[in-house]
């Protein structure tokens, strides 16, 4: 995800960023380092968010610029919207999390909400790290669920993570 973090950092100046499935807040740390006005991290695992808070502290970040929401995304849209609208939304879910997230079914539920979360010129970094899901899944799903957004580009993976099948490798797609 190095290239994804670099993209977020380069785009974050003065922006509001939503980091869905934040885990230990790597994208959030990159956004604050890039001058983001505010970042909202959402993840079900409070322990992961606590590590994310530690990551911000280790980078000497002002924690008043960062929110940590230990919530189920699908049950917390009101809370998530309260902090918006967002200039950048990062979606980096697990491929499968028993009982809480099934990629091909649940990803579309998130994309459906983007219109109410984003500013008019908002950008989305949508990620998938499943070898069975191709980039076309994200492009087609975005077209169906958030037609106001257009595919911009796929970020390349670092050379040290080259894969013989690019469709099976990590996919980091940008939409605007």
Detailed description of the structure:
Strand 2, helix 3 (about 45-60) and strand 3 (about 65-70) form a beta-alpha-beta unit. The longest helix has 13 residues, at about 45-60. By secondary structure, this protein is α/β, with parallel strands linked by helices. The mean pLDDT is about 95. The radius of gyration is 15 Å and the shape is globular. The strands form two sheets. The chain has a seven-stranded mixed beta sheet with strand order 3-2-1-4-7-9-8, sandwiched between helices. Helix 1 packs parallel to helix 2 (about 25-35) and helix 5 runs parallel beside helix 7. The chain is about 35% helix and about 25% strand. The protein starts with a helix and ends with a strand. The chain has helices at about 1-10, 25-35, 45-60, 75-80, 105-110, 115, 135-145; strands at about 15-20, 40, 65-70, 85-90, 95, 100, 120-130, 150-155, 170-175.
Give me the count of strands: 9
Strand content: 25-35%
Low-confidence stretches: none
Q: What is the CA–CA distance across the termini?
A: 20 Å
Strand order of the largest sheet: 3-2-1-4-7-9-8
Largest sheet: 7 strands, mixed
Going by helix content, strand content and strand pairing, the class is: alpha/beta
